[in-house]
Design a protein that fits this description.
globular; 6 helices; tRNA-binding; alpha/beta; RNA-binding; Pept_tRNA_hydro; 20% strand
């Protein structure tokens, strides 16, 4: 059974401001915006330097409000994500086993979803910053595939490009799937969520 009163902290990684909003690197922000449709209220500015939505995720089978979630989009740049995340964990008294970081993943094909706990950062600067600030890698992640850069394009340039027009229909489906994967992890646990979503996205 999920403890509906202990909060989950779900962090979507990205860079702040409209210039970066549609970039591949900002898919974490996009997933949280999609997930926020199921959480009453809206994002507000938090002193931790993040936009935060603190509410209940849907309803449980009895019709009662679902588990408490704090959705957070750090207002810092990607490589400085750790300080806002650490501050949010202190403020909401969240432990690493209830921290879920949603981020873009170069090493997965476009729209593939993978859930995991712990492990390395795979060169992702946002994850590196979080691991360093927390002093642990043992937190949950939802990796959202954005694919590898074409030809000899530098990865740093690729992640700061917008999704192509031809990819946007698939992206819209992926954002809904990713929001559902977050919900499944919170309600059902990591193993059940992995079984569902890793089979769905080979």
């Amino acid at each position: 059974m999920t403890d509906v009163n202990r909060p989950w902290l779900v962090v979507g990684l990205g860079n702040p401001g409209p210039t970066y909003a549609a970039n591949r690197h900002n898919v974490g922000h996009m997933v949280l915006d999609t997930l926020a449709r199921d959480v009453p209220g809206g994002f507000v500015t938090h002193k931790s330097r993040a936009a935060v939505l603190d509410g209940r995720l849907g309803t449980v089978s009895s019709g009662a409000p679902g588990p408490r979630v704090v959705l957070a989009k750090p207002a810092s740049y990607m490589n400085l994500s750790g300080k806002p995340v650490a501050a949010l964990m202190r403020f909401y008294d969240v432990t690493a086993d209830r921290l879920l970081v949603v981020h873009d993943e170069l090493d997965l094909p476009l729209s593939t979803l993978r859930l995991k706990q712990g492990g390395g950062e795979g060169g992702h600067n946002g994850l590196k910053s979080i691991s360093q600030a927390l002093g642990t890698r043992d937190y949950l992640r939802l990796r959202v595939g954005i694919g590898r850069p074409p030809g000899r394009m530098d990865a740093a340039d690729y992640v700061l490009r917008d999704f192509a027009a031809a990819e946007r229909d698939e992206l819209a489906v992926t954002l809904v799937d990713a929001a559902d994967a977050v919900t499944d992890l919170i309600n059902e646990g990591l193993l059940r969520a992995q079984t569902r979503w890793h089979a769905a996205r080979p």
